Structure formats: structure tokens, C-alpha cells
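Entry 12.
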Amino acid sequence: MIKPVAIDHLVLRTDQYRELIEFYCTVLGCAVERSTSVEFGLTQLRAGNALIDIIDVDGELGKVGGPAPGPAGNNLDHFC
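Predicted 3D structure (C-alpha cells):
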């Protein structure tokens, strides 16, 4: 039987990149751990012992993942 002890990270895709980062930082108290160029579109947030990666669907990385969240696209890329 597997008994997880923690979540390392999760990756969220969004078409509201800045708004989502603002929400996680101001409402939930996360801190920016690392941020890439705007063109690449990845911001990594610290949430206790875990990380939350926010991916801009309009950035280089986000475009690889398909359409924006909605009927044809997912907002959760993966979690580990």
C-alpha cells in the first residue's frame, strides 16, 4: 500500500497568469520562489513544503500543453 507523506509540487495552467499569482500570494500567503521570463511563462510559488508552478498558457511552456482551461483544455497539468 502506498502512503504519501507529502506533495512535492503541482502545475497549474491558466489564461489568467498574473491574477492567479496575485491570488495565491495575497490570499493564500504563498511566496514567489522562482520566476522565468514573461515569454517562457512559468512562476514557481512556495506553499509550505510544496511548490505550485503557475504556467501561462500563452507562454512558450504553456503553448506546449494545449488549449487554455475550459471544455477543450485542462488547468491541472500534473502533480508529484
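Annotation: Strands lie at 9-14, 31-35, 42-47, 50-56, 76-79. DSSP finds two helices and five strands in the chain.
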